[in-house]
Amino acid sequence: MTVRRALGWCLLLAYAVWACALDGAWAFSAREFGWRPDLLAVLLIALAARLPAGDLPWLALCCAIARTSVSIDAPVTNFALSFGMVALARMARGIVDVQGAWPRSLLSGLCAGLGVVWCALAQDARLSAARLDGFALPMDVSLTLAEAARRALSTAVAALALGAVTAHLPGLGPLWRRATWHVGASSR
Known about the structure:
The protein is mainly alpha-helical and 188 residues long. The protein has one domain. The chain is built from six helices and no strands. It has helices at residues 3-29, 39-48, 56-70, 75-95, 101-130, 141-167. The longest helix has 30 residues, at 101-130. The protein starts with a helix and ends in a 21-residue tail after the last helix.
């Protein structure tokens, strides 16, 4: 691994942490409103469309570390969520061109909605395991699905607006470009 690629991965981790931190800030300020995009899903899908298939596990690892650093969910939940999003993106890459704006936004929205459902299921399982009698209050499915739909729609709109920008963030080019650009020397 070259120094440029290592710097690109470090910058990706920093961008992912910033996306998660902004998501947390929006979650605190928009508790009543509820319409907030999952910016990490937008970043993950935009980069999963461009990166080589061998680098997708590293993308999932960076996003899982970023989500775990600012999330109250269990780390195993965040790691499973990030690797599941990358697996879904890899499957979608084999079917459609996810570099286009509409497929990228639909896939980002789908990943964000499934992420809400996954985190709710993991929290429900954790609460039922913590009880001594094994009985826990069932999660409210209608509220969870409504939150998932809001999150999916707002993430799809954000991916439509910001998808091309997130794919071209400064410093991430060496992750998918293997060769550097040669500066034209003078002919003298």
